[in-house]
């Protein structure tokens, strides 16, 4: 393992660029994912300008977007391009690679007591695939015809035919290439996470003594390994259709004045394959956020997480169900109605483990002794968004109701709140909480508070009103609603949403500032700033290869012994041996 | 110039923030504490903010309901729309109390249990009883919702049979407009094929199929008689579109290569709806609700719901698709070739423009 390259000096390139150290790779994921996220947010601000002030010119757009915004008015094709890239970047680059990549890498070895990942080399490859994938995606912005514009779901035939939309030319080829690279990177990462968690736990770290973060990363990695290959095959078949004239997804098409030669394919097949990944993907995004926030809420409530085993159980249940519900994205595709019924049933079942999680969070806060770090604020924000967005899922999951709101702004509101906001909040909370572990310095709390309140207010200001738009029948991916007098009542709402969107963006600048300022100028971190129990806080502040200078510590208890009666301090690290006759919540039967 | 000034301004603001932070940290150091330590007072302020936020959030929601509640979800104008709206109301009655309750608990706990160094949190790690309750209660509630939902879904998706009087028609989608086709006197839609599409045969009807000869093809708007069930077939010529008629709570994708179906019975005429909405310009619409290209946002067709007499009168004024006008299968090749040449020229011309 990594013991051999313990002490020799590395030069710059191997330390910062081709690093095989999980802590450095985590930072690489964070910075790359964060920058991609920044691009994604800017895109949303640009298309929100169009939606808020439909058709009004913003001359500065033309100055940096050129013919994407002739006379300062965004072009309809490019609107779709921006929406597509925004969705793709946010889902895959920010909240899959940026979130899971960062924290799985940082925390798995540190919290299970391992010197590094099982394979440092594969881990490095995983980052570099992600990096290349990011570069290819960004480069697609600049090619002729523009980047992919068929929505992040890239349904064929739209995504297959450049005649249908210019972005389906080279732009789509690059999108597919980028995603293929992304998937390879993600698989390398996930396999590594699974192997590491299964094999490299330190002495005493039984499965039921693992922090919920690790459980979340484990389950996420399993989901990724099982679902991403399906997306890869979907993409491959699409590549065949696009470039080699096969007809997996295409049939009976008359476009540009002629009949195309495709025969016998079905676009619905693509949808099945896409959502077989697509739905688990939302949990690939969400579960790590839930894991991080469980840890943060418990630590800062100075109280054990309530229902540790139920939390694990509900994550497993959610993971299992996530493979059985993809059809809820396809209720109105003409899929067999009986199948629709089955998917309604399985989908609504997801509400049960989700409800269990929410109540467990609430009970964790109850009678706690809550310290408000910025991480804690964002974690509470996550619980709020998870509830708000989760509840509207009960409407969307019910096929009879989905008929009317499918593909409207109701959906945009729903998934941004439950997936976008919850995961983003979890990720941000994670950054505040583990910043001292990553950079050895502290972030500024005051700015953190300002960041949280401006963010949650503007985020709800953006996404809550969208439910009204959707119920009124406004479809998503509309460049403007002004062609329908029916929607005129919502002109001022659209403006309000856009103003909040700009505020939300500005609020993230506070965060970016705090982040970079603190990397260089933040106060030096103590070893265990949050008085936390987990093993990560037993490593020295200065990073070293292999994580612990001496022996890897042994674990004697579960990670949630906060405010345990009889103990002097309000926390007992996992490394502290059990006292005579003390009961450990994380015990397993075979230890008796 | 503006851009430059903005950039300068941004940097100035950042610089000021940096200075202020520096001062904070210095003064904290002088007072002998770490800036990152959260003091009891700071926690207290945040905990009060939690309550303030709760109040603000609820107020914001009520304000929205008050301001936009009237313009959102339109009155259901179809038979099944009334049923789904009831199901929707029931669902709201479950969701809203859950939302309010959990939010009050969340933010109240966040306020109440703020850090106090003289208190200790309760070591409460699990309770089988509580966990059983909040597994069981959602299960029961969801079972009811699932049963009701599936019942509604089944009745919506069962196609009409021939013993029920109904109209058969087709909505045909292409970038970026709609074509409606009525099945005519025989109430049978003639078969169609993309290879037969041309200027005079927009949906590609096959003349050898007698059923199609009396089919009536319309553009711009289509009419429906009130209280008569309509069985729709949907097809698409190029990419996936979605026929969305929000007032009728109806939506179905139009997928190239296959025919999809949906049925509903309109119950309110356009004239009546004008009164209900107090809007003399009201019109039902069919919109496209699946991303389909640049003009996706403007792919619409008006729907007029009227009495049976008015409908019959209107339909009688429309021209049935006649045999002479359609190209027979034999001439297909040349036609296609001609249009192909045109298409290539078109593409070249477009390219030249760019
Ligand atoms: C400042 C923050 C954000 C704003 C203002 C914003 C705004 C929007 C809007 C208005 C749309 C719909 C556009 C349309 O349908 O025409 C959209 C689409 C989308 N957003 Fe965001 N969003 C934000 C953050 C996020 C985050 C954090 C995620 C992560 C999950 C996300 C994921 C998506 C996805 C997947 C789509 C769908 C793209 C598509 O239709 O293909 N967004 N966003
Ligand atoms: Cu899903
Ligand atoms: Cu369309």
Topology overview:
The complex is a heterodimer of chains A (592) and B (354).
Chain A: H1 12-17, H2 22-52, H3 59-65, H4 76-112, H5 120-139, H6 170-199, H7 212-244, E1 254-255, E2 258-259, H8 267-301, H9 308-322, H10 337-349, H11 351-365, H12 374-396, H13 399-405, H14 409-439, H15 445-463, H16 466-471, H17 491-521
Antiparallel strand pairs in A: 1-2
Chain B: H1 2-30, H2 40-68, H3 79-112, H4 128-157, E1 167-174, E2 177-182, E3 216-219, E4 221-225, E5 230-236, E6 241-245, E7 250-254, E8 260-264, H5 270-276, E9 284-288, E10 300-306, H6 308-316, H7 332-353
Parallel strand pairs in B: 1-5, 4-10
Antiparallel strand pairs in B: 1-2, 2-3, 5-8, 6-7, 6-9, 9-10
Overview of the structural elements:
The complex is a heterodimer of chains A (592) and B (354). Chain A has a single domain (23-591), classed as Cytochrome C Oxidase, Chain A (Up-down Bundle), CATH 1.20.210. In chain A, 61% of the residues lie in helices and 1% in strands. Chain A contains 17 helices and two strands. Chain A starts with 11 loop residues before the first helix and ends in a 71-residue tail after the last helix. Chain B contains seven helices and ten strands. In chain B, the strands form two sheets. A five-stranded mixed β-sheet of chain B has the order 3-2-1-5-8, with no helix packed on it. By secondary structure, chain B is an alpha+beta fold. The radius of gyration of chain B is 31 Å and the shape is elongated. At the A-B interface, helix 4, strand 1, strand 2, helix 8 and helix 9 of A face helix 1, helix 2, helix 3, helix 4 and strand 7 of B. The complex binds protoporphyrin IX containing FE (HEM) and copper (II) ion (CU) (2 copies). Residues 279, 282, 325, 328-329 of chain A line the site of one copper (II) ion.
């Amino acid at each position: 393992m990594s013991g051999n390259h313990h002490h020799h000096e590395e030069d710059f390139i191997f330390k910062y660029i081709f690093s095989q150290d999980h802590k450095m790779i985590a930072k690489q994921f964070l910075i790359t994912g964060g920058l991609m996220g920044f691009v994604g947010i800017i895109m949303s601000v640009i298309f929100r300008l169009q939606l808020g002030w439909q058709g009004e010119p913003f001359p500065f757009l033309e100055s940096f977007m050129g013919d994407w915004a002739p006379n300062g008015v965004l072009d309809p094709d490019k609107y779709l391009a921006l929406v597509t890239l925004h969705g793709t970047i946010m889902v895959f680059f920010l909240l899959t690679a940026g979130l899971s990549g960062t924290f799985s890498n940082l925390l798995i070895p540190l919290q299970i007591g391992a010197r590094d990942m099982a394979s440092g080399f594969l881990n490095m490859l995983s980052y570099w695939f992600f990096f290349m994938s990011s570069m290819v995606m960004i480069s697609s912005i600049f090619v002729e015809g523009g980047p992919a514009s068929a929505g992040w779901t890239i349904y064929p035939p739209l995504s297959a035919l450049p005649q249908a939309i210019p972005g389906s030319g080279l732009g789509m080829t690059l999108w597919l290439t980028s995603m293929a690279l992304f998937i390879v990177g993600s698989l390398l990462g996930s396999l590594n996470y699974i192997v590491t968690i299964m094999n490299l736990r330190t002495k005493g770290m039984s499965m039921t003594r693992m922090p919920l973060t690790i459980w979340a990363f484990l389950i996420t990695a399993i989901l990724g390994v099982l679902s991403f290959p399906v997306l890869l095959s979907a993409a491959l078949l699409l590549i065949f259709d696009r470039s080699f004239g096969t007809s997996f997804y295409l049939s009976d098409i008359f476009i540009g004045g002629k009949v195309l030669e495709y025969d016998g394919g079905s676009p619905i097949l693509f949808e099945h394959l896409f959502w077989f990944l697509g739905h688990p993907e939302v949990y690939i995004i969400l579960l790590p956020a839930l894991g991080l926030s469980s840890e943060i809420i418990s630590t800062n409530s100075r109280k054990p997480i309530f229902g540790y085993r139920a939390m694990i159980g509900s994550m497993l249940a959610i993971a299992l169900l996530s493979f059985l519900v993809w059809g809820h994205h396809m209720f109105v595709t003409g899929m067999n109605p009986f199948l629709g019924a089955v998917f309604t049933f399985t989908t609504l079942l997801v509400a049960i483990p989700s409800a269990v999680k929410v109540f467990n969070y609430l009970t964790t806060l109850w009678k706690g002794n809550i310290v408000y770090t910025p991480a804690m604020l964002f974690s509470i924000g996550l619980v709020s968004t998870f509830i708000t967005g989760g509840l509207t899922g009960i409407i969307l999951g019910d096929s009879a109701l989905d008929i009317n709101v499918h593909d409207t702004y109701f959906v945009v509101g729903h998934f941004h709140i439950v997936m976008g906001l919850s995961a983003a909040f979890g990720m941000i909370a994670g950054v505040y909480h583990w910043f001292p572990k990553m950079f050895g310095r502290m972030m500024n709390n005051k700015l953190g508070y300002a960041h949280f309140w401006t963010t949650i207010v503007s985020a709800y200001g953006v996404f809550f009103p969208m439910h009204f738009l959707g119920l009124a029948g406004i479809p998503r991916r509309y460049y403007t609603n002004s062609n329908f007098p029916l929607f005129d009542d919502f002109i001022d709402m659209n403006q309000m949403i856009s103003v909040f969107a700009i505020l939300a963006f500005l609020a993230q600048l506070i965060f970016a500032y705090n982040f970079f300022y603190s990397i260089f100028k933040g106060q030096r971190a103590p070893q265990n700033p949050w008085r936390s129990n987990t093993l990560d806080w037993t490593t020295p502040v200065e990073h070293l290869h292999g994580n612990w200078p001496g022996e890897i510590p042994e674990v004697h208890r579960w990670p949630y012994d906060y405010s345990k009666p009889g103990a002097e301090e309000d926390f007992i690290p996992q490394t502290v041996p059990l006292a005579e006759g003390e009961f450990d919540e994380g015990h397993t039967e075979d230890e008796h | 110039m503006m851009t430059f000034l903005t950039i300068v301004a941004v940097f100035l603001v950042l610089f000021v923030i940096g200075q202020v932070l520096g001062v904070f940290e210095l003064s904290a150091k002088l007072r002998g504490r770490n800036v990152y330590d959260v003091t009891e007072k700071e926690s207290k302020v945040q905990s009060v903010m939690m309550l303030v936020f709760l109040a603000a959030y609820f107020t914001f929601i009520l304000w929205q309901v008050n301001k936009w509640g009237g313009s959102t979800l339109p009155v259901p104008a179809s038979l099944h729309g009334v049923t789904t709206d009831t199901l929707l109301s029931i669902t709201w009655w479950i969701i809203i109390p859950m939302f309010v309750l959990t939010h009050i608990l969340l933010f109240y706990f966040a306020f109440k249990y703020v850090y106090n160094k003289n208190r200790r949190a309760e070591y409460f790690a699990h309770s089988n009883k509580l966990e059983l309750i909040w597994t069981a209660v959602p299960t029961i509630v969801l079972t009811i919702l699932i049963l009701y939902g599936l019942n509604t879904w089944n009745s919506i998706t069962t196609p009409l049979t021939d013993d029920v009087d109904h109209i058969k028609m087709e909505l045909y989608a292409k970038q970026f407009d709609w074509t409606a086709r009525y099945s005519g006197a025989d109430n049978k839609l003639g078969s169609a094929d993309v290879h037969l599409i041309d200027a005079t045969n927009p949906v590609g009807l096959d003349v050898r199929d007698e059923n199609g000869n009396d089919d009536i093809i319309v553009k711009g708007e289509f009419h429906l008689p009130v209280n008569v069930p309509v069985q729709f077939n949907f097809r698409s010529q190029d990419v996936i579109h979605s026929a969305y008629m929000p007032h009728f709570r109806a939506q179905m994708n139009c997928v190239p290569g296959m025919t999809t179906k949906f049925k509903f019975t309109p119950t309110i005429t356009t004239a009546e709806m004008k009164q209900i909405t107090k809007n003399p310009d009201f019109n039902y619409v069919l919109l496209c609700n699946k991303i389909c290209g640049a003009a996706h946002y403007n792919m619409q067709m008006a729907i007029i719901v009227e009495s049976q007499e008015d409908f019959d009168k209107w339909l009688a004024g429309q021209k049935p698709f006649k045999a002479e006008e359609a190209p027979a299968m034999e001439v297909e090749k040349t036609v296609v070739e001609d249009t192909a040449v045109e298409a290539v020229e078109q593409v070249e011309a477009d390219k030249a423009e760019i």
